[in-house]
Write a structure and sequence with these properties.
The structure holds 2 protein chains of 2 kinds. By secondary structure, chain A is mainly α. The two termini of chain A are 30 Å apart. Chain A has a two-stranded antiparallel ribbon with strand order 1-2. Chain A has one domain. Chain A has 5 helices and 2 strands, in the order αββαααα. In chain B, a hairpin with a 2-residue loop joins strand 4 and strand 5. Chain B is α+β, with helices and mostly antiparallel strands. Chain B is built from 2 helices and 12 strands, in the order H-E-H-E-E-E-E-E-E-E-E-E-E-E. Chain B is elongated and about 90 Å long. A 6-stranded antiparallel β-sheet of chain B has the order 2-3-6-11-8-9. In chain B, strands 4-5-12-7-10 form a 5-stranded antiparallel β-sheet, with no helix packed on it. The chains are: A mainly alpha, B alpha+beta. Chains A and B meet through helix 1, strand 1, strand 2, helix 2 and helix 4 of A and helix 1, strand 1, helix 2 and strand 4 of B. Strand 2 of chain A pairs parallel with strand 1 of chain B.
Amino acid sequence: MSKLLKRALKLSILPASLMVVGKFLSVFILIALYSLQFSIESSSSSLFSIQIFLQTQEQVLNVNSISNLITFLLIALPTLYIIARKTFMQSARENPRTIVKLTRLNILKWVTSDKTPILQITIWTMFLWIISGVCIASSMSGNTYMWIGVLSGISSILAAWGMVRTFETETDKIYPRENKAYY
Amino acid sequence: MIKREIKRFRNKVGKYMDPLAIIAMILVLLLPALTVINLSPLSKSNVKTNKNVLGEAVGKDLGFVLVGGVHDYIKEELLDFPSEDTYQYVATIIKHNPGRYSKPIVQIVNENSQEQAVTVSALMATTSNTEVSIIVNEKEYRLVSSEGEPYTTSIVLPSKSENIMYLKLVTQTPTLFNNNIELQFVQR
């Protein structure tokens, strides 16, 4: 099996599990927290045979919004962290001022070692796009607050921009631009 | 020698594993998304607007609410209101072994100060050796005989009462195909 696929599969397990476990736990914790009445009903025609039903649309809006936000944050925060880490790492190599700023912010350890491969950033960004798509679709159908859809949309665009930038930096290492040194 | 053969075998098999790995990768991306969508709760009132009525009240203070829930053989339940004072309950009966099966299907709420009568009739999509009856307030009413003969029955609902209606199926021989059942309630 190709090493790239093997590595991609390995890296996908954590975000995939976080998405499923995050959504599952957040829905049932919220139902228990608000003491909501719910029913699980079956259908043999749809892809999944089980569907959760709540009593009112307000309850659905609340539970869906908070659970979608939690799931989104579980994916978005690590993604933005690894992109920021990679960006600071590259910036620190090019500009000593970044090191000064990072020292002031006491996050110098972010640039001490480069353990973030481009593949990891790509995988996490893909999962961020997926959860953003789910949040936006849910917002548009009125089951999630609109601001969560907007927030996820903006975050996915930012993550895509960060991923493209990182990809650019990595390709510049292979095909260096003129008068510029890459490490 | 053996190690070299194992390595050669692994290299040979490894080439054919790539398409499987790509499928696995697609599944790893798709399944969490589908799971998140499926775990998003829906509201019963929201489904009502799609004409799949799970709870509705009419002018005579008689309310019908679909009980729902999971059952091994009675699935895809829908409660509809095709016209005023008429309710229609539709379900799929999954192929099953001989036996007696029952499930609470509809809750009928009579908020009126007078008792109300409801006429119930049933229809099976295909004839099977299944006897269909309903149980309300511990009384059993036969709707379809095992020969497929339909009956119409009238139920009297006491005032200010909440009545759970059970669907009972009695099968003598194994049913090999899924069947559809339709119950019609007409408020008199």
